[in-house]
TrEMBL record:
PROSITE patterns: HTH_HXLR. It comes from the Bacteria. Keywords: DNA-binding, Transcription, Transcription regulation. Residues 11-101 form the HTH hxlR-type domain. PANTHER family: HTH-TYPE TRANSCRIPTIONAL REGULATOR YODB, TRANSCRIPTIONAL REGULATOR, MARR FAMILY. GO terms for molecular function: DNA binding. Transmembrane segments: none annotated. Gene3D superfamilies: Winged helix-like DNA-binding domain superfamily/Winged helix DNA-binding domain (1.10.10.10). InterPro entries: ArsR-like_HTH, HTH_HxlR, WH-like_DNA-bd_sf, WH_DNA-bd_sf. This is Helix-turn-helix transcriptional regulator. It holds the Pfam family HxlR.
Length: 101
């Protein structure tokens, strides 16, 4: 029974990595960390993302219950929890990576 549960958990973790590994997903979540944003605002913040790709990524994040949409896109409680993973990476980046010119 434990092995079956571990395999199921492993598949779930892999699915999360696959979702977040898609281009723009992490950036969208990061840009929503301070609050809701409209589609246009997100497109401006995520310089270079096409409207069709942004729409697809937003739908994937909605399907995964990481964001929600009403008068703007915002993180759900699950999305807020996911941000706790970002902080150590942000700290590491500040220490070891210089900002782009």
């Amino acid at each position: 029974m434990v092995a079956t549960e571990e395999r199921a958990h492993g598949r779930a973790v892999t699915e999360v990595f696959e979702l977040l590994g898609k281009r723009w997903q992490l950036r969208i979540i990061w840009e929503l960390r301070t609050g809701a944003a409209t589609f246009r605002e997100l497109q401006q913040r995520c310089d270079g993302v096409s409207p069709s790709v942004l729409a697809a990524r937003l739908q994937e994040l909605r399907d995964a219950a990481i964001i929600e949409h009403d008068d703007g896109y915002r993180l759900t409680a699950a999305g807020d929890d996911l941000l706790t993973v970002y902080q150590p990476i942000s700290d590491w980046t500040r220490k070891w990576r210089s900002p782009e010119p």
